[in-house]
Specification:
This protein is mainly beta. Helices cover about 0% and strands about 50% of the residues. The protein starts with a strand and ends with a strand.
Length: about 120
Amino acid sequence: QVQVVESGGGLVQAGGSLRLSCTASGLTFDRSYMAWFRQAPGKEREGVACISWSGISIYYLDSVKGRFTISRDNAKNTLYLQMNSLKPEDTAMYYCAARDGSCSGSPGLFGYWGQGTQVTVSS
C-alpha cells in the first residue's frame, strides 16, 4: 500500500511564508519523481513544482518562480515546498504527487496522491 500525506498548510497574510511537507511510504521514494499541485475552487488542478529523484532536475510554474522552492530528503522519505512572498492568488488546496517517470505538469500522469493541505492567503 502506498500512502502519501501532506502537512503544513494554514492561513497567512500576503507576504508571509509557509513550508509544506509530504511524507510517502510504500514506494521507492529515492527513485520517484515528486511534485506539488494545487487546485482552487472552480479552477483546474495545476502543477506547481516538480523534482527528480536525484534533486538535480527541478521545474516550477511560472507564477511561483523566485518565490517557491521545492526540495526533498530521500533519507526521510520527505518532500518539501517552501513558499515565500505568498499572494492571495496562491490560495488553493495543495497536493503532493508521485510517479516513476519524468516530471510533468499533467496531473493525470501521477499515480499516487495525498489528501491535500489547504493554503489560504489573506490580503
